[in-house]
């Protein structure tokens, strides 16, 4: 049975897609069979993983039942990708009956659940129906944040959404942790944000990951070269941070699966 990890924050620019792509590549480098799912209409996850060209079928076609989900998957060097594009902005899911619209993604993924070791979902910068679908099907949630005060704004709403999903759709959803991106420990602001993020983590029964991601130009350069960050530049400080982060979540997931 696949372990499903969703990367989510309703604020844009906090590193959701970069983190999703890093998890996909990092777990694949450990020998896992990984599927990345792009639930963001901007469609950047595939690009970050080296996907080229337009996609004749996308996740929206599979969600709407126009094609089997297997037909929409693109095979890449390290992992598979279920791509999206701007058409995902209007899904039509809201036309489904209550109770069905929130679990459309879960039902769509059923044929794949014994094929992949991990499924990693990149969500849009919004708490919308697509995000609810991701939470409803996931085992674990990772919340990336930039090291600025504005990244903390709105996280109380995120907490409320998580609580609602756990009460009605997915009681087993676990928040694996908060990941601080663009983190410069030399600055007072970064230390203040870390402290406030720790307070928020306590409220949602999770933690701030020990690993913090430093700023790094290689993170931005890798997609332009059609490579994931680990293939592009393993020596970049930010990339080595992401490598440690993958080790940390792999250990956490294993421990939580053992503990139950």
Automatic annotation (TrEMBL):
<dbReference type="InterPro" id="IPR025669">
    <property type="entry name" value="AAA_dom"/>
</dbReference>
<protein>
    <recommendedName>
        <fullName>Sporulation initiation inhibitor protein Soj</fullName>
    </recommendedName>
</protein>
<comment type="similarity">
    <text>Belongs to the ParA family.</text>
</comment>
<dbReference type="InterPro" id="IPR050678">
    <property type="entry name" value="DNA_Partitioning_ATPase"/>
</dbReference>
<comment type="subunit">
    <text>Dimerizes in the presence of ATP but not ADP; ATP-binding is required for double-stranded (ds)DNA-binding. Interacts with DnaA.</text>
</comment>
<dbReference type="InterPro" id="IPR027417">
    <property type="entry name" value="P-loop_NTPase"/>
</dbReference>
<feature type="domain" description="AAA">
    <location>
        <begin position="4"/>
        <end position="175"/>
    </location>
</feature>
<dbReference type="Pfam" id="PF13614">
    <property type="entry name" value="AAA_31"/>
</dbReference>
């Amino acid at each position: 049975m696949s372990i499903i990890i969703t990367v989510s924050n309703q604020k844009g620019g906090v590193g959701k897609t970069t983190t999703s792509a890093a998890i996909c590549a990092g777990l694949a480098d450990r020998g896992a069979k990984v599927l990345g799912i792009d639930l963001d209409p901007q469609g950047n996850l595939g690009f970050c993983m080296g996907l080229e060209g337009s996609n004749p079928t996308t996740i929206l076609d599979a969600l709407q039942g126009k094609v089997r989900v297997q037909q929409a998957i693109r095979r890449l060097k390290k992992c598979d990708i279920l791509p999206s594009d701007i058409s995902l902005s209007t899904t039509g899911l809201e036309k489904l009956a209550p109770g069905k619209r929130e679990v459309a993604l879960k039902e769509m993924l059923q044929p794949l659940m014994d094929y992949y070791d991990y499924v990693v979902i990149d969500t849009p910068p919004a708490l919308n129906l697509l995000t609810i679908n991701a939470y409803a099907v996931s085992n674990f949630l990772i919340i990336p944040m930039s090291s600025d005060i504005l990244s903390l704004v709105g996280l109380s709403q995120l907490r409320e959404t998580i609580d609602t999903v756990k009460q009605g759709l997915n009681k087993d959803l676990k928040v694996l942790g908060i990941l601080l991106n663009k983190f410069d420990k030399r600055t007072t602001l970064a230390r203040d944000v870390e402290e406030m993020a720790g307070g928020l983590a306590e409220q949602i029964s999770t933690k701030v990951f020990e690993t913090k991601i430093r700023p790094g130009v290689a993170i931005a350069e890798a997609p332009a070269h059609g490579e994931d960050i680990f293939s592009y530049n393993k020596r970049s400080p930010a990339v080595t941070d992401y490598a440690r982060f993958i080790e940390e979540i792999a250990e956490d997931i294993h421990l939580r699966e053992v503990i139950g």
